[in-house]
Amino acid sequence: MSESSPARSREDTTVHGLHVVLDGNPAAPPLLLVHGSGATGSTWEPVVPALAAEYRVITIDLPGCGRSEPASTYAVPQQAERVATVLDEFGVQNATVVGHSSGGYVATALVERRPDLVGELVLVSTGPSLAALLPEPAIMRVVASPLFGPLVWALRTESMIRRGLAATAAAPITVPDGAAADLRRTSYRAFRAILAANSDYIAARTVPQRLVDAGKPVRVIFGDSDPRWDPASAGQYEAVPGAELEYLRGVGHIAMLEDSDALARSILGRAL
Length: 272
Hints:
It contains eleven helices and eight strands. It has helices at 48-52, 76-89, 103-113, 138-144, 149-155, 158-166, 177-183, 188-204, 207-211, 255-258, 260-267; strands at residues 9-15, 18-24, 30-34, 56-60, 95-100, 118-124, 218-223, 244-248. The model is unreliable at 1-5 (pLDDT under 50).
C-alpha cells in the first residue's frame, strides 16, 4: 500500500443487540447499507469493496434478522430508532443512507425521526406504495402461506434460499456463502412480523409522500425488470422535489447480486 492510499480496516461487532460490520477507511465519510425484508447485511457483500474505497461502509442486520437479536416490535419507526442508536454509538452524522427494498422504509423513517443522521438518501428497488406491488412468485406465495409457510421455512436449506432469491431476480445471481448462512438464522415469526410492519408503514403514507417535506437529496435506483415492484412505479418518486431516478438495465429486484458493478457505480453517482 502506498503512503497516499487510504487505510482500510474491517470491524465485525454487535451494538445494542444488532450485528454491525464496518469496512473502509475510518476517516472516510460514512455510508450505511440497510437490507430488505428477510435479508441480512451480508447480502450487500458484492458491492462493499467498491464503496469502501471511498466511504466508511456500515452494514447492519436489522432487528430479528441474521445475527441480530429479535425485537419486541418490528414497526418501521422502531426499527429506525434501533439503527439510530448504532449510528450514535459510532458518532455518525450526515451519512449517505442506502436502503434496499423495504430497507428503504427504515431509511425513510430514519430521515423522519433523526434527520441529523442522514445527509443523502438512496433507495434501491424500494416500492413506493402498496399499489405498486406485483403478484408474488410461486415460491414466495408458499412461504407466505400460514399453512405451509412455517414448515417450508423450518426445512429450508441454503440451496432453497438461493432459489428463493433467484425468483426475484431478472439475471443469474451468485449468493455469497455467508449471506446464505445468515439468511437461515432469521426466524419465520420475525420474517412475518417484519412483512406486516412494512405493509403498515406504506399503507399509512407512501414513501414519496413521506419524503416530500424531508428536505434531503434523494436518489432512486430501480431495476427495469423488477418482478416484485412495478418498475414504472418508480416514477412516483418524481413528486419528491429534486429526486433523481435511474433504471438499471436487465436487473430485477436484487441489484447487488445481479449487477453489483452497476449498482456500486450508481450509488457512487457514476452511472453510465
